């Protein structure tokens, strides 16, 4: 039961918000506006899955917002040059993987702190993009929006794609050796090494995977608009990290699952539209989101303290 307390509490909070909307703002559940809201959040869900895996491996990546902007602009430029959509998607994922590999190289191979590395790359990618584009938007060809389909079919394609990524990654972390390696490295690097796992390789590949997911998310993002904003992705890293923490991913690594992260993501994603539909001032959004995150961190602390008192360390003979 204790293993699922976080999931249950997040699900209850989400249920209360949805119930309040059903009672006081049933317009929230109108099909097309709701589908548009979900579609807009789908790319962020994919990025959040990657962030959760990075955190489980006891790392952090705060450069994903800048990666998202770079991948979005470059993908938009390729689309504007009339590249086929399939090649545009492959190029976006490849570029994201390359940006992630740069982070992984510094963190896994050179053993630099991930917070410092990704802070540096976050600023570098964002400023390089600002210098290159000077704030100019990228105009996309007419056939790219919604993958050339109707808006409804395009939105459903985006949402289903995000859910498929969540489902596959969720299964992989539970049932594949690669997923177990990530948990092992995040729990105890030395124990993982003694078990025959190569922690440096696992860490490197986690960052590469993070970048590839960001490239995919960038493609799903740009098809929703006729233009690409070079400032896209601003604040995405904080949103993704917050959703992972609320969903039960331990900042110290080695713990968390993507199904609970999905619940945390939904909870935070519902805060802003709930405030709008309930006619509550928008400035409460950050305060409420901050309170939710703080509650999640406190729950982690209490859980650790409870575990410590429940399983006290046995004193050695030498210590009497």
Short summary of the structure?
With 320 residues, this protein is mainly α. Helices cover 72% and strands 1% of the residues. It has a two-stranded antiparallel sheet with strand order 1-2.
Notes on the structure:
- This protein has helices at residues 5-24, 31-56, 64-80, 85-109, 114-133, 151-175, 177-187, 189-194, 199-222, 236-246, 258-277, 284-310; strands at residues 138-139, 227-228.
- The chain has 320 residues and is mainly α.
- A two-stranded antiparallel ribbon has the order 1-2.
- Helix 3 runs antiparallel to helix 4 (85-109) and helix 3 (64-80) crosses helix 9.
- It is globular.
- Mean pLDDT is 88; it is low at 314-320.
How is the topology of this model organized?
Elements: H1 5-24, H2 31-56, H3 64-80, H4 85-109, H5 114-133, E1 138-139, H6 151-175, H7 177-187, H8 189-194, H9 199-222, E2 227-228, H10 236-246, H11 258-277, H12 284-310
**What share of residues are in beta strands?**
under 5%
Mean residue pLDDT:
88
Q: What is the string of SSEs from the N terminus onward? A: HHHHHEHHHHEHHH
| Distance between the first and last residues' Cα | 36 Å
Spatially, the strands of the biggest sheet line up as: 1-2
* Portion of residues within helices: over 70%
> Roughly how many Å is the radius of gyration?
21 Å
Principal-axis shape: globular
């Amino acid at each position: 039961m204790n293993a699922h307390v976080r999931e249950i509490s997040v699900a209850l909070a989400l249920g209360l918000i949805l119930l309040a909307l059903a009672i006081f703002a049933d317009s929230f559940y109108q099909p097309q506006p709701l589908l548009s809201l979900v579609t807009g959040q789908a790319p962020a869900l994919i990025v959040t899955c990657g962030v959760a895996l990075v955190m489980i491996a006891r790392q952090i990546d705060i450069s994903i917002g800048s990666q998202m902007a770079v991948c979005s602009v470059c993908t938009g430029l390729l689309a504007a040059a009339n590249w086929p959509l399939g090649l545009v998607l492959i190029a976006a994922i490849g570029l994201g993987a390359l940006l992630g590999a740069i982070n992984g190289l510094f963190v896994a191979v050179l053993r630099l702190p991930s917070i410092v590395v990704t802070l540096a790359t976050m600023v570098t990618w964002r400023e390089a993009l600002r210098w290159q584009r000077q704030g100019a938007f990228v105009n996309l060809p007419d056939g790219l929006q919604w993958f050339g389909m109707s808006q409804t079919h395009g939105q459903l394609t985006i949402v289903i794609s995000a859910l498929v990524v969540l489902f596959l990654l969720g299964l992989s972390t539970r049932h594949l050796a690669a997923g177990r390696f990530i948990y092992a490295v995040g729990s105890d690097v030395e124990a993982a090494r003694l078990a025959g796992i190569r922690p440096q390789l696992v860490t490197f590949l986690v960052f590469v995977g993070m970048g590839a997911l960001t490239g995919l998310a960038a493609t799903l993002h740009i098809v929703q608009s006729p233009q690409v904003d070079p400032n896209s992705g601003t604040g995405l890293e904080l949103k993704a990290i917050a959703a992972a923490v609320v969903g039960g991913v331990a900042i110290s690594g080695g713990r968390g699952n993507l199904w609970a992260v999905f619940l945390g993501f939904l909870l935070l994603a519902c805060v802003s539209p709930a405030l709008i539909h309930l006619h509550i001032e928008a400035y409460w959004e950050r305060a409420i989101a901050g309170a939710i995150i703080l509650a999640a961190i406190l729950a982690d602390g209490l859980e650790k303290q409870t575990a410590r008192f429940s399983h006290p360390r046995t004193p050695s003979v030498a210590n009497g």
